[in-house]
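fold-stage: in
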Amino acid sequence: MVRRRRFLATVGTVAAGGVAGCTDGGTSTPQALQYRVPALADGTIPRRLTCDGDGVSPRVEIERVPPPTEALALTFTFPQGIAGQTMLWSMWDLPADTDVVPTDVAADPGVDALGGAKQGRNARGDVGYLPVCPPPGEEYEHWFTLYALRRPLGLAAGASADALREELETATLASRLTTATYRRA
């Protein structure tokens, strides 16, 4: 059942043209969640965020969250078709009033500067941001998603991508997806 929900959520996100609205009682609320990732504003991933550059995490500017948001979470993934997504970065239990996640967040399990937010394991098995690094040649799409949560997740820092996805299924009030591409030479 979990795989089917993930698949349907992915299909719904793509069908919505890059904006995912989770529902609570049948009401879609993607417009109530507003944020920007300035580095991705033109739809491409700058070299600085990749393995070809500095490999730093992007700045996130959170402009509006829907009530009754109690916490925030974010994921940065490399979709692998129906098979799933490669987790590049995840963070959860950010306070609901967070307005900025700075560039180059340290690879610490707990982020005290962000109200004790927690970071998860990336596809390499490390905690923190894994720089964008797709195979060379083609242009590859990546997904950045911000989640407004009805409750803090309470997952331990360093949790796996699967554990995070399981918690997000029941805690998400709204989510919003930004897509950007990168092509390695």
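fold-stage: in (second)
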Amino acid sequence: MGEAPQIRMRPARREDVAAIVRLLADDGLGAGRETVGDPPPPDYLAAFERIATNPQALLAVAEDAAGRVVATLQLTFIAGLSNRGADQALVSAVRVDSRLRGRRLGEAMMTWAMDQARARGCRQMELLSHASRTDAHRFYERLGFAKSHVGMKRAP
């Protein structure tokens, strides 16, 4: 395990979309569902615009000292009535460049995400992780997340 690279977290910009899609495709699951290109296909750019204009969504990137996008995550802030009106932050699409995994970059990103959630008044944080990502599950558990729900999905 090498030394943790220095990163700076920031909101994603339109010009980051190709790099973000490359990160999303940088594993077995993503490789089968993402389309990498520079420029990225139009549907990714349209999705970016929907996210960027949604005040309840934050697509973020981590850039290294040279300004290269090396990781990404998305936060969605959800107003809630349950749990005495607790707002929550949903973390999804967490990806770290495969060449940099195991160097605490993901931990730095998740700490940043937790800070963002606290700053927005969220009392709870949830995350989505595919059932097959057992290494990621161990990582999240080390950060204090507990397996508490069973998720399901389907096409509408």
